[in-house]
What does this fold into?
Amino acid sequence: MGVASWGQQCDQPGHSCSDFSGLSNTMAGLICKNRLLLSQSAPILSKLSARGAHGLPLPQTKVDIGKREVVGFGGNGEVTYIDSVMAPFPAIRFKEDVGEIAALREKEKGDWKKMTKEEKKSLYRASFCQTLAEVEAPTGEWKSIMGLSLIGISLGIWGYLWMKKYVYGVVPDTITDDEK
It folds into this structure.
């Protein structure tokens, strides 16, 4: 009995999957039991899913954003913050609007010419962790990658030299002499 026929047992008209007695000991019984549980919980799960009824729903994850303001769609529609050049406008602000930032938010609603350059910068830093120039700036990670690559190459060369000296024996005459 193949896997396809095990799964088709639940779909046959004369077969009842609601009776679990004796079925859970076989692979067909486990598949039938799982299909029944999924069919019973699918309506509930589709209501809880943020992605609707596109196949099986993904589980909801709670994101603790505190009092940060949701300001847009973000990179993939989730309420998260990430600095990325591919999605430069995150869904939430970087910092919560408390204290000095809350006062600046109220002042922001008025005339921007009355705001100082430092106040504008602090508002920007409350919304974003890094500027796009800081995101694109080189990190120096290439140095560690190059160093580890060179260490790996040198270990390989030292391993070859050790094997050539201690593992391999003398080459027979039949390999080196063309006449034999």
